[in-house]
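[recover] target loaded
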């Protein structure tokens, strides 16, 4: 008896599992797998249906989010276009709207491409503006597109005037939304927030186009004072612009 008891303690559980395995194997053999298929069928619907529901819910959420983003983008474009139309209606000069269709990340602050060209009367040096003020000038023209040098480009130079007192200078781009204004002579009455516009002696730009506002001042700069000017046109994000078709008289 002790021998059987010890044997059962050592091999009893293994024997039970072995017999169970044999019975399952026989069941599978005689039913040709129907037993397992039926068991899996009974177990699977709950988690499978939940997985399908989760995927469908996730798809719906993503679709709704994409549609919401598109609606916001369309509303923003609509508002920008309305502002451009109002800007054109208020201007005494012949202006035409243009959509920005090209802008390289490597030259974000340098140039943009717009969707109007010589077929619409665009010429080199035509002035480009947006709501807020000066954007730049046309440098290259094809039949249906034009390339615009932005005021923020390092090669840009724009004659500028302080509206409050008429101090003259020029603004050069720095590759950011801040330009550097260098005055032609010593000045003392310059304040943060002073409005800067295009000069009346510029050979390209019409006078009194808003450029920006004084952001910082260095009156001790030699040989002449300098000021940081924050552009009032949204140079960092341009969707629609306007091109001034008026011809500017060039000074000798």
């Amino acid at each position: 008896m002790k021998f059987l008891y010890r044997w059962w303690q050592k091999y009893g559980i293994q024997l039970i599992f072995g017999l169970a395995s044999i019975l399952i194997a026989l069941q599978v053999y005689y039913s040709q797998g129907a037993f397992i298929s039926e068991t899996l069928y009974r177990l699977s619907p709950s988690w499978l249906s939940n997985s399908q529901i989760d995927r469908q819910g996730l798809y719906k959420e993503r679709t709704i989010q994409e549609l919401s983003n598109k609606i916001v983008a369309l509303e923003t474009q609509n508002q920008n276009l309305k502002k451009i139309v109002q800007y054109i209606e208020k201007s005494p000069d012949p202006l035409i709207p243009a959509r920005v269709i090209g802008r390289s990340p490597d030259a974000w602050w340098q140039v943009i491409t717009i969707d109007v060209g010589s077929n619409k009367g665009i010429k080199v040096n035509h002035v480009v503006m947006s709501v807020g003020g000066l954007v730049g000038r046309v440098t290259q023209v094809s039949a249906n597109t034009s390339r615009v040098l932005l005021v923020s480009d390092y090669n840009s130079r724009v004659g500028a005037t302080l509206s409050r007192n008429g101090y003259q200078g020029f603004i050069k781009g720095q590759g950011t939304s801040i330009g550097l204004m260098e005055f032609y002579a010593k000045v003392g009455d310059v304040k943060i927030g002073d409005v800067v516009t295009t000069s009346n002696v510029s050979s390209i730009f019409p006078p009194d186009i808003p450029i920006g506002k004084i952001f910082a001042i260095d009156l001790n700069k030699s040989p002449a004072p300098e000021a940081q000017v924050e552009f009032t046109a949204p140079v960092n994000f341009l969707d629609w612009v306007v091109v001034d078709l008026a011809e500017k008289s060039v000074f000798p």
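[recover] notes: Helices lie at 2-31, 34-90.
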